[in-house]
Amino acid sequence: MVQVCLNGARGSADGAVVPLSPQAVADSAAGAVAAGATDVHVHPKTPCGRDTLSPRVLAVTLGAIRARVPASVPVGVTTGAWAEPDPAARVARIRSWTVLPDHASVNWHEPGAEEVAAALIERGVGVEAGVWSGTDGTARFLRSPLAPKVLRVLAEVTDPDPATAADTARALLAGLGTARGRPVLLHGEESGTWPVLRLAGRLGLSTRIGLEDTLFLPDGHRAASNAELVAAGARAWALARGTAGPRGG
């Protein structure tokens, strides 16, 4: 699986290429799916460009994307604490959603992660357990009673150094072990994005790519769109997978 991460917490300062409005994210999602993405992750935005868990904004954003991509393509959102810092308010927002995403990411190191994940599961929304390197998210996830119930583990390598990001990823995966039996999606960020994506290919793991994680292509040129990143990411993943040994290299 190659998931496209359309925008993340980026804003207008990151350039016009980053989609912010419902129509822009829908157009970008359609292009990314045409380029090979099989899953969509988006951060719904207020008109001023701030991440939000507002039921109204969520409904409009999901509706716009689903009108442009095949019904077989799941669409997920963030529940990051920066969008709603108070855990109780975050849970209340989720319970007020009138249109549901197919899945939502929950950062397991954040306060209230268990309650947020439980609220999503209660509503039938798949949970991507975000486990970040450099945090206690791995330990908290592995001892969570909800771990076997999540859709997958989103192993997020926060090391932006291209020289060390792959090693950081290996350490994160080693700490996860069997990940309580759940599938793992491995990805990096900024300059660590491409080394980690290639490692995911060698290991046969799902990955993601998009303007949330990086603004740049493997050759260092600035990406013109999420579709361009997805096309490059799918090629890089497949090439890495092709050079792996019979057990994933």
List keywords for this structure.
249 residues; 8 helices; disordered C terminus; alpha/beta; 8 strands; 14% strand; eight-stranded parallel sheet
Q: Helicity level, as a percent range?
A: 25-40%
Termini gap: 19 Å
Counted beta strands:
8
Q: Which term fits the overall shape?
A: globular
Order of helices and strands: EHEHEHEHEHEHEHEH
The helix-and-strand class reads alpha/beta
Gyration radius over CA: 17 Å
Arrangement of strands in the largest sheet:
7-6-5-4-3-2-1-8
Biggest sheet layout: 8 strands, parallel
Number of helices: 8
Mean pLDDT: 96
Sequence stretches where pLDDT stays below 50 over 5 or more residues: 245-249
Strand content: 5-15%
Question: Layout of SSEs?
Answer:
Elements: E1 2-5, H1 22-34, E2 39-42, H2 55-66, E3 75-78, H3 87-96, E4 103-107, H4 113-122, E5 126-132, H5 137-142, E6 152-156, H6 165-176, E7 184-187, H7 193-203, E8 207-209, H8 226-242
Parallel strand pairs: 1-2, 1-8, 2-3, 3-4, 4-5, 5-6, 6-7
Helix pairs in contact: 1-2, 1-8, 3-4, 7-8
What does this structure look like?
The chain is an alpha/beta fold and 249 residues long. Helices cover 37% and strands 14% of the residues. Strands 7-6-5-4-3-2-1-8 form an eight-stranded parallel beta sheet. Helix 3 links the parallel strand 3 and strand 4.
